[in-house]
Design brief:
145 residues, 3-stranded antiparallel beta sheet, Deoxyuridine 5'-Triphosphate Nucleotidohydrolase, Chain A, mainly beta, globular
Amino acid sequence: MNIRIKKLRESARLPEYKTDFSAAADLYACLDGPLTIPAGGRVGIPLGFAMEYEDNDVVAVICARSGLASKRGLALSNGIGVVDPDYRGELTAAMINLSDADYTVYPGDRIAQLMFLPIVRGSFEEAEELSETKRGEGGFGSTGV
């Protein structure tokens, strides 16, 4: 699938796959200078580009980098970022610092990942009843540890 990238800032970097079998491409902070995210703080970090891809049955998803999330507590504040196929604005990584220490992001740092997934659209209809299952209404933790 071809992805067209329009740089919106001079220092923007294109997404980059780091290995032959990477499922997601690294995304880079497009900043004019260092940006400190305080412990518990949230911030939108610009990526410096907009994009267009040719398959409307695919969604681009911005994901956390596992190393930053597990080692530094830096994750996406919205869990994942959904980039709809018709969005043409600048991509931004909505970051949250879940640690108890401030974290500084520098221009060009790898801060997130971009992957593409198929879209399955549901057809919603109202129902009076739903079929019964063994689990039923058992929610969080109902199946054990």
